[in-house]
Amino acid sequence: MSLYYYATAGINSDSDSIRLCSYSDVYAEFTSILAKDAYAALNDSTAVCSDTAGNYYVFSGNQYVTSFDSSFALRDTWATSGTYSFDGTTHCNHMLVHPTTDQLLIITNGNARVLDSDGDLEFNCTLPASQFPYYAQTQAYVSADNAEFVFCCLGGTYGCIIRNSVTDGTLIGYYKNQRSNYTAQTVCLAAAGTHGYYTEKNLSHAVVLYKTTFPADGATWYQALGTSSSQIGTHILESSDATAVYVNEGTSIVKRSATDGTVLFSYDIGEYITGIVIAAADVVMVFCTNSGTDEDGDVGNVRVFSADLTKLATDSLGDQPYDASAGAIVTPISPDSESRYTKRLVAACQDTIWTGVSSATMAKLSASIDGIDCSQPLSLAEHTSKVFVANGSNKFVADFGNSKLNTTDLVGGDGIPSRETVLAGGTSGAQLIVDYIDASTGACAIYGKRITEATFSAGETVTGTNADDEAVSFVLSAAETAAPHWYAWTSYANDSDTYGSLPAKIDKVFVTQGRVGVSLNKQYPHQWYLSRQLNPWDWTYGEDDAQSAVAGNNTDAGEVGDIIVDVFPYKDAYVIFGCVESFWYLTGNPCQGGTINELDLTAGLLGPGAWCWDDADNLYAVTTKGLVRFLAGFAGQENLTIGTYPDLIKDLAFNRSTQRMTLSYDRERNGVLINIVTLENGANTNWWYDLTSKGLFPEAYPTAASIYCTAFFSATDPADTAMVLGGADGYLREFSHTAKSDDGGAADVAIDSYVSFGAIPLTTDARHDGTLGAVDLITGGGNESATAEDSDAITMTVFAERTSEQVVKSAVNNTNAKLTKIITGPGVSRGSVEKRRARGRAGVIKLRNATIAQSWALEHLNFNIKKSGKVR
Amino acid sequence: MAELLFPHAGYHKGSASSTQPQNTSPDLMNVRPLDNLDDRFRGGQRPGLDKWSSIDISGGVISPVVAMCTVTIVEAI
Question: Is the pLDDT assigned to residue A126 strictly greater than 90?
């Protein structure tokens, strides 16, 4: 139940508007809606209350009860005269709605009327008016068991408690205080209906707390539980175990013994308390209309305490509802994450698999330590939450999705769980769909997807029915273990007779059409192998069905023929075979009409990994002809470097036995990154092919940061989403928007960046030289305070020679510079125009920065050419 | 006055030096058309290499990261 604490609802009878003594926004909303002209019946309203549905009831000075819904729209107006009388009074002392029956209790001076939810009079409560005439100051409550209306009559020389049935208003009992000059304050009846609490205030404003078991009618309350010199005392609440009572005393909440009133605990809220709720057995919530600074220095108007008044929380209520049963602000419903998966990065380094969901959580997969050989070719591929590892004779699975069961007594023969058998724990009730088992009898590990929240426990009997309708039953030797797992990649149940075998040595693994494929078998380098569809444990080739495992020499789609350099799939449409001197592709299901087609018989793939796909389905590969783009759907190909850099392949001199090449599509920067690293020493050659500008740009990195492999990682945290680069020194790196140097492992390294403009012809007259001058260089960024976006200084060097080729060579070799000047950034700076001139027939302007922690951008570069003297 | 634009078409060594195509360069290194300071196609120094993770996954042996991939894991029941 959510309780909406609008503090003490009351009426401002000086105006014609309703005033909730509550929060300003509610008040403002109410007054703005209920303009006095709109509801004249509300004149001199004297009471307001609300029901659990949020409807409001207002008692008007002319004896009307008007009801509004939670949006303050008029629901009904019940005339009071004729149907029932309010005794001619225009004043309602208190009004409330019973929380379960929706009865409306209206207390006037002398009567307590109970109306039903339709506004019809049900009954008048029987009140002992002769003894307790001061109804004008009466507060009313509904008892904790909802069975009684309880009246606390205040004022005069005595006060009293009156209990009436909510069924018919009959008097259950009444109790009084007859101490002269004391004023009744409030009352609290214990939930059990056996006793209650009551405060009274004397003329010196001391407040006395009383406890009583219910005496005979008219008897006095008799057990004083303590006196507080502070005022208030208007809230009393018995603790859940009835041994103590919480009262407000001044700005403090005090817990007193229910036996003798001893102060057990006290806490100064710093503001007068307007409500106390025991939200749970040991949680006490205290409310104030205004925010106060409590004894811990915290500010708020809601505090939550443990039973010993140790503060658990301070908060500000605002107009948020509180859930009394939960003991906390009812926070707006925040939809749960829509993500039902996580991404992990998996990396192989130093003979071990590392994995993490973020940059900060990369950790060893402990079972994999020294399980692989990173000095040998190695590839990874994901299939159904598992990563398959091909590393020569090392064939492993890093399983991140399955649960693992262990038994020592698997019965062999017909009773082994087949793949997709549903196993059930006899004790736990847990269920699991079998994915893989590593033995066919005896000790066996069973891996599968658990489909229940219940988990398997040690010692329980697990049963199921396998695909041959044979009963499966075994006892677990240990409780279920959660992923990740690391185990050898074998055929199902390690049963090669039934499920075939993986090739002995494989360097390549890939996934296509739900099959796990392998290749780069050193014994059969032209061969490729695909597992059964959706079953990476079945390598029985040539079965009579379309999902059968298949190898490249016994199917509709036969072997490639050429030596395979790398095999890579694209979606489920193609598998491309990049060979030494040719390209082929498999399309369709190789067991059902699939075919292998030639893609290019004039060029081969330069090295494993020398390929990537862009976001438009184009394939990029460094071939023996250059950087080639195979258009989407193999609609053609274009050599991207044959015109701009015919000697690219010759200059690369790529040796796949000593070097590694990696191509990566950078989806953030829209380009293809080409990395070549020499395995022995980490020396690197790199190119960036910019897909936006269609240009090739050489790059060089520190040896420690040489790139051996890449993976685009879509992390849960966008800050970790990046094209991750596997470095030579065991660090994972990325291209950074803020880094102005390269991370070289132990230290940052300056980026030596430069670009030459030219050769620029300086003359068209064969007999005269020209001069290049008035070079006006404007760097990127503003002129004012430097920001991260501002360019650092650029060193400008001007070369001029007799021939274009010579001036380019001078620029490349940085020799025979005619003039050099440092242009300080950002933007236009003093001296950004170089007035000196360089004479020759061809010129080059070279811009450069090789300073650590600096970067630059070019905004504008102008120059002029003038005719010079005769050629000497 | 003549204006020179950053060689967005990149490295070019496929023609005579005297007829170097527009927007190309015969000599450049560590520059890209999209500058890294403000992500504008005006040309500038390439982005720097920074550690994606501060964790040395070679365990201090200084050994290369030889392979990587990502794996998707469906949330457990």
Answer: no
Chain A neighbours among B 25-44 (CB < 8 Å)? 25-44
The count of CB pairs under 8 A between chains A and B is 375
Residue B69 lies in a domain: no
Alpha carbon distances (Å) from A170 to A124, A148, A215, A812: 9, 10, 18, 108
Q: What residue has token string 């078998």?
A: A521
pLDDT in tens, A525-569: 888 899 999 999 999 998 889 999 998 753 445 555 678 899 999
Interchain pair B7, A451: CB under 8 A: no
Residue B63 lies in a domain: no
End-to-end C-alpha distance for chain A, whole angstroms:
101
Residue B68 lies in a domain: no
User: How far A323 CA sits from the closest chain B CA (Å)?
Assistant: 29
Average pLDDT, chain A: 83
ipTM: 0.97
d(CA A663, CA A675): 6
Q: What is the largest CA-CA distance in chain B?
A: 70
| Residue A694 near residue A688 (C-beta atoms within 8 A) | no
Q: Which domain holds residue B16?
A: 10-45
B18 lies in some domain: yes
- Residue A484: cis peptide before it, omega within 30 degrees of 0: yes
* Contact across the interface for A754 and B30, Cβ inside 8 Å: yes
Choose the closest CB to B11 out of A483, A698, A790. Answer: A698
Cβ–Cβ under 8 Å, residues A798 and A837: no
Least Cα separation, residue A652 to chain B (angstroms): 14
**CA–CA dist A140, A125 (Å, integer):** 12
Residue pair A468/A457 in contact by the 8 Å Cβ criterion: no
Domain count, chain B: 1
| pTM of the model as a whole | 0.69
Which tens digit of pLDDT belongs to each residue from A322-352? 555 555 556 667 777 776 788 999 999 999 9
Token look-up 């859940």 returns A240
Residue B45 at interface with chain A, using a CB cutoff of 8 Å? yes
Q: Under an 8 A CB cutoff, do A692 and B76 touch?
A: no
The residue in chain A having the minimum alpha-carbon distance to the alpha carbon of residue B72 is A343
A582-613 tens-digit pLDDT: 999 999 888 888 888 889 999 999 999 999 99
Nearest to B37 among A342, A354, A780 (CB): A780
Candidates B10, B35, B67; nearest CB to A379: B67
Q: Which of B27, B37, B44 lies closest to A756 in CB terms?
A: B27
Strands A748-750, A741-743: pairing is antiparallel
Distance CA A438, CA A58 (A): 76
